[in-house]
Structures are given as C-alpha cells and as structure tokens.
Write a structure and sequence with these properties.
Layout (H helix, E strand, L loop, with lengths): L26 H12 L17 H9 L5 H9 L4 H6 L10 H8 L6
Helix pairs in contact: 1-5
Length: about 110
C-alpha cells in the first residue's frame, strides 16, 4: 500500500496527543510502537483510521528525534517529502515527548 503524506495535524484521537482519552488504543498498539522504536530498521506508521495516510503524530515525533526510522527515511525520499512540508506540521495541543512516555501514561501498570 502506498503511504500518503498530506495531513498537517494529528487526528483528534491520535495517541501522540496528551489530550486523548487514556487507554483509547490497545496496549498492543503501544507495544508495537515501542518494539519498532527500538528496531534499527523501524517502520512507517499509518494513521489509526486506516486511510492510507501516515500518522502525523508519529511523523512529528520522528522528525523531532531526527528520523531514527530508516524505513521512514526511505519512504520520505521515495515520496519526495520536503523539509517545507515537515516544517508545516503542527499540533495545537501538547504531545508526548517519547513513545515510552505515551505508553506509560496510557498503561501505567505495565512493565515498559
């Protein structure tokens, strides 16, 4: 499936936003995010809406962390995503600083 880079803001239920209802997404989603965060190759995360678009919250987090996902870097290059587009991404509410912080906020009793 082709990944689309066109959304400029995270969805209202994006797990990267701190104002989203806690534990809205399954614990497995957070385990997957953490596993891929630790992987040298990484991945490209689609929006939870399964609409073919990249998760903007995740993309903003990857950008903030200098693109640790190699798969994302390849996808950005393949799709000609510009620095101008990345600089246009924004979120009007606070976002979690790290995937681990997000996972711990949603499932504080888990061993992350």
């Amino acid at each position: 499936m082709q990944t689309s880079y066109c959304k400029k803001q995270p969805c209202k239920t994006c797990p990267y936003r701190t104002d989203v209802k806690l534990a809205h997404w399954s614990i497995e989603e957070y385990k997957d995010l953490l596993a891929n965060e630790r992987s040298q190759l990484g991945t490209v995360y689609g929006c939870h809406k399964k609409d073919g678009k990249t998760c903007t919250g995740w993309l903003m987090n990857q950008d903030k962390n200098n693109f640790p996902s190699i798969m994302l870097r390849i996808s950005l290059s393949k799709n000609n995503v510009t620095r101008e587009f990345l600089d246009s991404l924004n979120c009007h509410v606070p976002m979690y600083e790290t995937v681990k912080e997000m996972a711990e906020a949603n499932y504080p009793d888990s061993n992350w």
